């Protein structure tokens, strides 16, 4: 007579499998979708280099779509075996050159920047978005969120003028329905300037939500919006 089969072992195995699937589906709580103002990236001591495709548009560009935890920490470099493969996103490259341009030196095509974003951040959302889905989600969010138009409609223009931080935040909140996180950097003269805008997105990568936590933005109460 063969060994008696213990059904409870099977149930335990199934439960463990379910838990593994659940934990994989919840390896982060939300995304930060981060756009940066190229004029502020370039107006620093380190300066910038235009990509090999030429000067990017005078508009906010994507920095990244970053999985985050509610406590403010974040996962990174989650799957070294799933490296960036540009052939998987060949249909998105022209949009990325426009909306996700690199400004790092020396001048380059952008693939190093995109590779970094996928490998550091994108791999941590691979339970939800594959490589193509990840880049497309960020591009689609950019199409939905015209931050420059929102700010200009509120009389906040990239003309080298100074604007109150509270006015910038209010303009974006009124425009998108959610409070943004604002990050500043410093120009060569030491002025605080509008550098990056953070909005929060649900774990599908498509729906805006209220931010559970904001990054430390290091902004003065009055910030410059430089031209580009």
From TrEMBL:
Domain of life of the native organism: Eukaryota
BP terms from Gene Ontology: RNA catabolic process
Keyword Nucleus belongs to the record: no
Annotated signal peptide: 1-25
Residues the record marks as active site: 63, 117, 121
Record's keyword terms, sorted: Disulfide bond, Endonuclease, Hydrolase, Lyase, Nuclease, Signal
A GO CC term attached to the entry: extracellular region
Matches recorded under InterPro entries: Ribonuclease_T2_eukaryotic (IPR033697), RNase_T2-like (IPR001568), RNase_T2-like_sf (IPR036430), RNase_T2_His_AS_1 (IPR018188), RNase_T2_His_AS_2 (IPR033130)
Molecular function (Gene Ontology), one example: hydrolase activity
Keyword Signal: yes
Protein family membership: Belongs to the RNase T2 family.
Protein name per Swiss-Prot or TrEMBL: Extracellular ribonuclease LE
Organism (species): Sesamum alatum
């Amino acid at each position: 007579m063969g060994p008696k089969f213990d059904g409870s072992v099977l149930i335990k195995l199934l439960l463990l499998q379910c838990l593994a699937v659940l934990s994989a589906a919840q390896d982060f709580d939300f995304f930060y979708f981060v756009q940066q103002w190229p004029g502020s990236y370039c107006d620093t001591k380190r300066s910038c280099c235009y990509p090999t495709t030429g000067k990017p548009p005078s508009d906010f560009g994507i920095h990244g779509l970053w999985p985050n935890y509610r406590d403010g920490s974040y996962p990174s470099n989650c799957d070294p075996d799933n490296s960036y493969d540009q052939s998987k996103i060949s249909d998105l490259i022209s949009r990325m050159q426009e909306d996700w341009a690199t400004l790092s030196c020396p001048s380059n095509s952008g693939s190093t920047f995109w590779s970094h974003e996928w490998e550091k951040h994108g791999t941590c959302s691979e339970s939800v978005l594959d490589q193509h889905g990840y880049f497309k989600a960020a591009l689609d969010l950019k199409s939905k969120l015209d931050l420059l138009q929102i700010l200009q409609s509120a009389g906040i223009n990239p003309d080298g003028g100074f604007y109150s931080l509270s006015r910038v935040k209010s303009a974006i909140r009124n425009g998108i329905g959610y409070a943004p996180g604002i990050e500043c950097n410093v120009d060569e003269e030491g002025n605080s300037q509008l550098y990056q805008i953070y909005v929060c997105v649900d774990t599908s990568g498509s729906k805006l939500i209220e931010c559970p936590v904001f990054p430390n933005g290091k902004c003065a109460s009055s910030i410059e919006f430089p031209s580009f």
